[in-house]
Structures are given as structure tokens and as C-alpha cells.
Amino acid sequence: MWRTQTWWVYLCAGLALLLFLAAAEVFILNQWRQVLEVHERRSALKEELLRLRRLASDIDNGFRGYVLMRQRIFLAPMLSAEEALPLSLERLIGMAETPPSLHGRAQVLKRRLEELVNTKRRLVRKVDEGEHEEVLAYLRNGDGVALARILTAAFDDLEDKIERQFPPAQFSHLEIPKLVAVRAGVVVLGVLIVQSLLGAFPVARRHET
What we know:
- With 209 residues, the chain is an all-alpha fold.
- It has one domain.
- It is 87% helix and 0% strand.
- It contains 7 helices and no strands.
- α1 runs antiparallel to α6 and α1 (2-69) packs antiparallel against α7.
- The protein is rod-shaped, with a radius of gyration of 32 Å.
- It starts with a helix and ends with a helix.
């Protein structure tokens, strides 16, 4: 009787510890997965935003070079950027679906970039049609600078929203020690549970004798 009772105590204690550690491990891994997913999303958004900034710069610089030098070779960066822009915007909009505030800012940026492309295309056609002075007046009056400032504000607004939505502190190296500490605490708690179960064994033995 005493041996059977001993066996059951150890079995129950072992099973309880295994179940407890398994549940705790699932919780820890799930937390770590969520942190990594959010970190990857933040990095992908910022990378795509940087790519769009470069494309917008290529469009503006290519246009200025063409207007000033009147050589179509300067349009190459602009045309290449215009070709790459829709796909890059599609990726950004897809990654910024949630929350709605982030999605709204991404849509604003999309409209500003489309305005940039349409404006530069219209002005290039004017140069091709011989209306060069009108285009130069556009540059001298600062209309291009005003458009660039509006676009920069849209970029900065979206980037600021990304920073606030996914703060860098959330992904610091301190997260790893935190999870390690949680895991160590789980092990200690599991050992205490086993000890409490085994504490019933001497009592059972005294009753048996």
C-alpha cells in the first residue's frame, strides 16, 4: 500500500510539473512571437517608407534636370521611379491596414505621391510642347517647393505615427532578459508545486505506520 501510494505521489507531481511548464512555455513563446511580429512589421514599414522617399526624390530631381538641361537623359531616373512607385505604394498600404489611423495616413501619402507624379508629367509635356517659360515660372514661383513641403509633411506624419504605434523601446534588448527571468520564475514555481505535492507523502507514510 505504501509503495503504491508513493508511486502515485511521484507520478502526480511529475505530471503536474510537466503540464505547468508546458503551459508556461507556450505562453512565453507566444509573447516572444508577438514581439517579433510587431518588430518585423515596424521594420518593414520604415524600410518601405524610406524606399518611397528615394523614389519621390528621383522623380523631383529627374524633372529638374530635364527642365534645366532640356536633355531627355535626365528623365531616366524619373521614369524609373514612376514605374516602381505603384508596387511600393501597394506594399505600404497592405502593411498599414491596421490600425485605421495608420491606414489613413498611408492613404494621404499615396494621394500626395500621385499628385507629384501627375504634376511632373504635366510639366514635362509642357516642355515637350515648347512651353518652357511657363515651366520655369512654376519653378521660380516656388510651386514645386510648396508641393515638396506638403509631400515631406505627409512622409513625416506617417513615420511619426509608425514610431508612436510601434515604439522602439518595445523591442530593446531588455525583452530577452525579461523572458528569461519569467522562464526561471516558472521553473522555481514548478519546483515549489512539486515540493508541496511531495509534502503529502510523509504524512501518508506516518498514517500507514
